[in-house]
Each structure stands twice: as structure tokens, then as C-alpha cells.
């Protein structure tokens, strides 16, 4: 027992250990009512500001302002869409004209013809045609079915003086 009492002398008393925390707790307890009042006052101010903006007149004004803003944005969107549509329409028209210019139908309208074989492929040379081949000659206003009389014969070249042609400068 004496050893235990000797060891117990080195341990501080309970009041000494709890003295500083008790002092802090007492200090905080004394400040608590004042802190609660300050907190409540801060919330009252925030609620008063929020309530001031919730007045019906202020709300109506805000709704009217937002309506005007929305209408202006809708009008801008309409103008933008109209402009975009017109640009695309102009581009499409231009591409259509380009397609028309590059298409062979314009060439046919100027007096040329397109000759196709029985399979519908274009005939590019006289040598590709045999006698009695069925051909189709496409003109600007329609197609004529024909049968070749001779095939693989190259057209005759005219020389100066023959056939009333202009002749060749190199000939």
C-alpha cells in the first residue's frame, strides 16, 4: 500500500486537472447569450433583405423586366435563324446552278448528243461499236433508239480542197 500511495503523490489532483477546462467552459457559457443574440440579429437582417425583394410590386417589375429580356432574345434568335436560312438557301441555289452548269444536259441543250450502248454506258469511240449494235442517242429533248450499220470504222479526215473544208495548215 505504501508504494501505491507514493505513486499517487505524483499524480495531480482532479481539481487541478479540470481547472483550466472548467474556466474555458464557464467563459463560453457567459458569452453564449450574447453570441445567440448577435446570430439572431444577423439572420433578422438577412431575412428582412430577402423579404424586401419579395414585395409584389418588386416581383412584378422583375417579371416584366425578364419578359422584355426574353422577348428580345427570342427576336434575336428569329433574326439569326432567318439570316442563316437565307444564307443556306442562297448557297443551295448557287450549288444548284453549278450542278446545272456542270451537268451534261446543258451540253445537250447546246446541240450535242450522248450515245449509249445497250447497257446504258456511254460510247466513247467509233471502234467500240460493232455492226448491228443497238444504241441510244440522247438529245436535249429525248432519246432515239438506233441500230449501227457498220462498226469500228474511224471517220474519214477531210483534207484541204475535199468536201469544201478549210483544210490544214500542216497538210
Structural commentary:
This protein has four helices and three strands. The chain has helices at 2-9, 14-53, 56-102, 104-109; strands at 114-116, 134-139, 142-147. Strands 1-2-3 form a three-stranded antiparallel β-sheet, with no helix packed on it. Strand 2 (134-139) and strand 3 (142-147) form a beta hairpin. The longest helix is centred in the middle third of the chain and has 47 residues, at 56-102. Mean pLDDT is 84; it is low at 156-164.
SSE layout and pairing:
Elements: H1 2-9, H2 14-53, H3 56-102, H4 104-109, E1 114-116, E2 134-139, E3 142-147
Query: Helix content range of the residues, please?
Result: 55-70%
Alpha carbon gyration radius = 52 Å
Shape: elongated
**Roughly what is the average pLDDT, rounded to an integer?**
84
- Biggest pleated sheet: 3 strands, antiparallel
Q: Give a count of the beta strands, DSSP E runs of length 2 or more.
A: 3
Based on secondary structure, the structural category is mainly alpha
- Please, how many helices? 4
Main sheet strand line-up: 1-2-3
What's the helix-strand series?
HHHHEEE
Ends apart, CA distance between termini: 146 Å
How much beta, percentage-wise? 5-15%
Weakly predicted, low-confidence segments: 156-164
Question: What are its keywords?
Answer:
171 residues; three-stranded antiparallel β-sheet; 59% helix; elongated
Short summary:
By secondary structure, the protein is mostly helical. Helices cover 59% and strands 9% of the residues.
